[in-house]
């Protein structure tokens, strides 16, 4: 799904709404294009930062415009090494070819392909591995799988690919709780974009415990659950509502609010309660979502990156992008990457801004060997 805005002639810029936003941005925030490839939506979703290698993994658009994927062709997974790519971007020599490494792609000869990894749209770290949330394609089911980062040719471990014997609709995004549970959203974009058939399943947000196999639908009231994130204390679960954007269906449905919902979690992550509207977004929809170590909420919208205060949902600052963006990933020491389809943006804000500690999850309840 792609955010859009009518202000295509406007320049990218930072805008603060409060002193809290000023503190997050710092005195001299920086924004530059890290890599751009016209005509290929290579930078869509599923970004994961790995501090040990200084890499960000991410996926191309699955089934959408310029994604080069459809009913018969899988999307691609890439990684970009920040210490390598950033100097190229700063000296003006960055290209897709010299900045981006292909991990899995049907378009590149010799790159491993697995039936269990189809139309990846969400991802997060799981110990030393990558946890992929796959929409599925044609008769290949949506799934949650683990990939060994040190051996990407190794067959991935499938954690889940059905709910009580029925396929999921279109698994979209995923987050891991520190106690081991996996929360993920199941939307319908594979069906809308004509690379998956309809199935006898509701769109919903799910909780799955891989060590026991316990699977539970925790909410089916959000029209189209999409992005998902945890607060740094793991007591709040955020889910974006993207039912307004009927990508592939023709007409957007403005009767559905462009909001982020919040849920309370108990200390174990097993009890989910108190669904409420956290905030609404001003342009398009809130798509991908992340939190920082202080609980501030970052989301990509039709207007670019929006940042909200955790207790009030009030806006702190915006990085306006005329194209909008689809997902954000927090890097250490005030660095962020924005995925904007044909472009990856690099932002540098105040150095005290750090990601939520999801890279260490799960701290308990972890599958053996990961």
Automatic annotation (TrEMBL):
<protein>
    <submittedName>
        <fullName>Predicted alkaloid synthase/Surface mucin Hemomucin</fullName>
    </submittedName>
</protein>
<feature type="compositionally biased region" description="Polar residues">
    <location>
        <begin position="1"/>
        <end position="19"/>
    </location>
</feature>
<feature type="region of interest" description="Disordered">
    <location>
        <begin position="1"/>
        <end position="22"/>
    </location>
</feature>
<dbReference type="Pfam" id="PF08450">
    <property type="entry name" value="SGL"/>
</dbReference>
<dbReference type="InterPro" id="IPR013658">
    <property type="entry name" value="SGL"/>
</dbReference>
<dbReference type="InterPro" id="IPR011042">
    <property type="entry name" value="6-blade_b-propeller_TolB-like"/>
</dbReference>
<dbReference type="InterPro" id="IPR052988">
    <property type="entry name" value="Oryzine_lactonohydrolase"/>
</dbReference>
<feature type="domain" description="SMP-30/Gluconolactonase/LRE-like region">
    <location>
        <begin position="155"/>
        <end position="329"/>
    </location>
</feature>
């Amino acid at each position: 799904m792609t955010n859009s805005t009518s202000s295509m002639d406007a320049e990218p810029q930072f805008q603060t709404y409060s002193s809290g936003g000023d503190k997050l941005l710092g005195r001299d925030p920086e924004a530059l294009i890290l890599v751009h490839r016209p005509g290929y939506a290579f930078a869509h979703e599923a970004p994961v930062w790995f501090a040990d290698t200084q890499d960000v993994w991410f996926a191309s658009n699955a089934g959408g415009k310029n994604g080069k994927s459809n009913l018969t062709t899988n999307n691609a997974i890439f990684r970009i090494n920040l210490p390598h790519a950033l100097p190229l971007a700063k000296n003006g020599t960055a290209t897709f070819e010299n900045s981006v490494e292909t991990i899995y792609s049907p378009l590149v000869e010799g790159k491993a392909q697995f039936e269990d990894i189809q139309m990846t749209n969400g991802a997060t770290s799981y110990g030393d591995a990558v946890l992929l949330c796959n929409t599925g394609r044609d008769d290949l089911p949506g799934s949650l799988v683990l990939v060994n980062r040190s051996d990407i040719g190794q067959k991935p471990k499938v954690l889940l690919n059905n709910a009580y014997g029925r396929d999921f609709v279109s698994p979209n995004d995923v987050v891991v709780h520190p106690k081991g549970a996996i929360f993920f959203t199941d939307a319908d974009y594979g069906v809308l974009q004509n690379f998956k058939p309809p199935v006898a399943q509701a769109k919903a947000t799910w909780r799955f415990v891989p060590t026991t196999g316990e699977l539970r639908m925790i909410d089916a009231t959000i029209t189209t659950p999409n992005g998902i994130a945890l607060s740094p204390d793991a007591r709040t679960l955020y889910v974006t509502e993207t039912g307004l954007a009927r990508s592939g269906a023709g007409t957007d449905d403005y009767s559905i609010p462009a909001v982020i919902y919040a849920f309370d979690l108990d200390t174990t992550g097993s009890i989910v309660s108190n669904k409420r509207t956290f905030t609404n977004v001003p342009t398009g929809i809130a798509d991908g979502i992340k939190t920082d170590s202080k609980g501030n909420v970052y989301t990509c919208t039709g207007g670019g990156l929006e940042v909200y205060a955790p207790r009030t949902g009030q806006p702190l600052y915006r990085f306006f992008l005329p194209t909008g963006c689809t997902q954000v990933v927090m890097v250490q020491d005030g660095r962020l990457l924005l995925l904007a389809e044909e472009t990856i943006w690099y932002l540098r804000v105040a150095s005290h801004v750090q990601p939520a500690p999801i890279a260490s999850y799960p701290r308990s309840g972890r599958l053996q060997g990961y």
